Amino acid sequence: MQEQVTLLHTEAQQSSARGATSGLPIDLIQESAERLRVLALLYAFIFFMAGVFPAMMTAEERAHFFGSVLLWGPSVIGIGLAIIVALVIRRVSLPTAMNLGVAFEIVSSYAIAAAEFADPSMLASHREHMGLSWVSVWVLLFTVVVPTSPLRAVLAALASVSSVGVVIGLVMAFGDTSVRVTPLEFFFALVFPYILVVSMAYVGARVVYRLGTEVKRARELGSYFLEEKLGQGGMGEVWRARHRMLARPAAIKLIRPSLAHPHAGASDEAVQRFTREAQVIARLRSPHTVELFDFGVAANGAFYYVMELLDGLDTDSLLRRFGPTPPERAIYVLRQVCHSLSEAHSCSLVHRDVKPANIFLCRYGEEYDFVKVLDFGIVRALRDPDDTSTLHTRKNEVHGTPAFISPEQALGTNVDARADIYATGCLAYWFLTGQFVFTAETPMGLLVHHAQTPPAPPSSRTELPIPTALEDLVMACLEKDPANRPQSARELSCRLAELQGANTWTQDRAREWWAVHQPSV
Fold first, then answer.
1. Rounded distance, CA 129 to CA 487, Å?
2. What is the mean pLDDT of residues 486-515?
3. What are the two backbone dihedrals, phi and then psi, of residue 304, each rounded to the nearest 5 degrees?
4. What is the rounded average pLDDT of the residues 254-263?
């Protein structure tokens, strides 16, 4: 199961996100902000191609265009504003982004109206069709592409479409033009059509808003509401969630039943097995195992775990951003991993997917470099000898991540806790070198390497110094024969503790690293 998820949470982020929802899911609001950026760039491009480029064709046209600020001014203002919005939209909070969007809709509409009607000579040429403006198209497009609450949408639409009447009214009142209309003509040419436009915008806003709220209701799982998708992998999705009654944030992993139990779907038997395994996982008390708050089965048959929401980054992201880990820090992290695995193994749980993306390094209270092991039991628990269910792993089925899979997993044979020892060796190799133990063009090639190919020592894959004793221990974990590896996570932890320099990575060093490289938001 390939998956990389960073469960990052801060109070400021959550408060800002809630303030921007307006009844819509946070991720849909975030998508709206991104669409606003694209829409602003599209506005600038079209405005240039339709309003500026044609005036550049001949010297006479250029002289006429730049000879009046009423001709070039609206274009400059509209295009400049659109570019500014596109540049800053990613750098502001969601509430600010949505407020900026409303302001952009209104000002950009006035820029369109001014480009069409501000020059008295142009107004005269539009005498028979002065009420038909591109503003109406822009308002309808904006309302659908950048959704918000219906009330907010209709107020913004009213302010936007007023641009046509305001600009034409000012030109007729103060400009040098012979165009004159009666109040009744003004109403039916410049007011009534835009009342219809606002009505259509309101209907569109209500439809989009209702779809968003239906999505929001569909994301409710028991007492939890899914707020924002944090990641997606082979087995399902991870969401930031909020409890209806409690202030405690959480992360929810949704597991698609077709992947968790490909031969059974969400049958009663599958639900029973899932419940039994979740109850076992919930009993794990190692501080280095992600805490399970709740579990259940959604209406669509998807299984879900409710877990603590963590502040930090997974070790896959750690190495890709900052490079290989110093040996003393690797030992510090690996011992915490072993603490989690040891308790799980004592409860007859084999992780079978130990990999950097499932090892989370975080700030935990006043602790730094505090390890949380994720995804326990999501694949399966060790077979209960009293359980005759056919839902457990079948012979010759391969589970796990190819780059971190044990030889016995690669061969599809039965596994025990020593498969996790092998994967921990692959994890240590990754920490020390920043490289996988084996590489291949296909997943099957990786499986063959893990099953048959002797690994190269870590020191041959990096220029960084690696203590000989640590390298020997990593190579022992990578033995093809499980009998030649450390026989338990507890044994591996003890051997790591005996290595020279095992205690040189301290909380002071960890705190200093976090202050420099991963400061609190």
1. 86
2. 91
3. -145, 145
4. 55
pLDDT digits (tens, 9 = 90+) for 399-440: 567 888 889 888 888 888 899 999 999 999 999 998 899 888
Q: Which two tokens stand for residue 173?
A: 């009142």
The model's pTM is 0.58
How crowded is residue 55: how many other Cβ atoms within 10 Å of its Cβ?
A: 16
CA dihedral for 262, 263, 265, 269, sign (positive or negative) = negative
Residue 232, classed as helix, strand or coil, is strand
Residue 234 neighbours by CB distance under 10 Å: 10
Residue type, 87: L
- Which residue blocks in 3-93 are alpha helix, DSSP H? 11-21, 26-47, 59-66, 69-88
| Distance (Å, whole) CA 468 – CA 60 | 81
Residue 515: phi and psi, rounded to 5, are -65, -35
The whole-angstrom separation of Cα 497 and Cα 503 is: 8
Residue from 314, 353, 375, 420 carrying the catalytic annotation: 353
State the DSSP H helix or E strand holding residue 221, giving kind and residue range, or none if neither: strand 220-221
The reply to whether 353 belongs to the active site is: yes
Cβ contact 438:450 at 8 Å: yes
- Topology of the domain covering 312-517: Transferase(Phosphotransferase); domain 1 (1.10.510)
Q: In terms of DSSP bridges, do strands 249-255 and 220-221 run parallel, antiparallel, or are they unpaired?
A: unpaired
Cα 328 to Cα 325, 355, 401, 448, 451: the distances in Å are 8, 19, 26, 32, 30
291: closest CA among 301, 281, 299?
A: 281
CATH topology of domain 221-307: Phosphorylase Kinase; domain 1 (3.30.200)
Residue 286 neighbours by CB under 8 Å, 6+ apart: 339, 340, 342, 343, 344
> Where are the domains positioned within the chain?
26-218, 221-307, 312-517
- What's the whole-number average pLDDT of the chain? 78
**What is the C-alpha to C-alpha distance for residues 101 and 142, in angstroms, rounded to an integer?**
9
Say if CB 172 and CB 127 are below 8 A apart: no
